[in-house]
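Could you join me in thinking about how sequence relates to backbone shape in a protein? Label the sequence line and the structure token line clearly, so we can match residues to local backbone shapes. Once you have written the record down, we can walk along the chain together.
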Amino acid sequence: MVFFCSCTQAQTTSSDQKLTGDIKNDLISLLPSGTVQADIIDSVRQNPRQMELTKKLQSSIAQNYEWFVDYMKAVPPGEKMPYHVKLGLTKEEYTELLGFMNNIEMVSTGTENISVQIKNDVIYFKSQNKLSKLDSLTIDLKNNMVSFGQIKIPFADKLNITSDKNVLKSKWMGYSWILEEPNDLDANALKDLNSLKMRQYKFTIGKLEKSGKTYMSLKGREIENGAKTIDFELPIQF
């Protein structure tokens, strides 16, 4: 179940340019050298009723976890989960919650400056505080590889979001890089949480059609013997 800021002259210029499909050139357009002030959009706007229904759903899933894992197997990718009484809500409440989820909007919790440098076909970042993890992020333009420290995150897909009914409230185009280990993790493995070992990293970047701004997100999660050892998400917009 993710955004605003003041921009430099370079960002104003790049906002008028559309993505071309050439990943290297598009990344340079989205991330021109210089310093930007980015909004950290890591909070969701919810009303009390939405929070109440979400809490009931989460509680029921926790109590019926193995059933939930099996139930999700039958849901096609990208499809909404159909109603079931074990979700802990009435059918009317579930319909109401889906309505809220269709209108989720991420909001800014603050801003930070980010320095972007391009050197020898590699993009480097420098920031601080909540965005200090970006210091470990690099993008190899020549080999189309994102790195987070020693972790290599390979290119995954081009993105073309054709509806504005999403948390960004805009149509947008961009790219994603994803690392998932093991890459053949199935639903049955999720049942035995005590022995679960996995790591997932994802980098996403794109241009919002409505504002012309750059959206960027870095996510990381590692689980060792069922316990989260790393879990972060850094969605920003500038």
Q: What stands out?
A: The chain is about 25% helix and 35% strand.
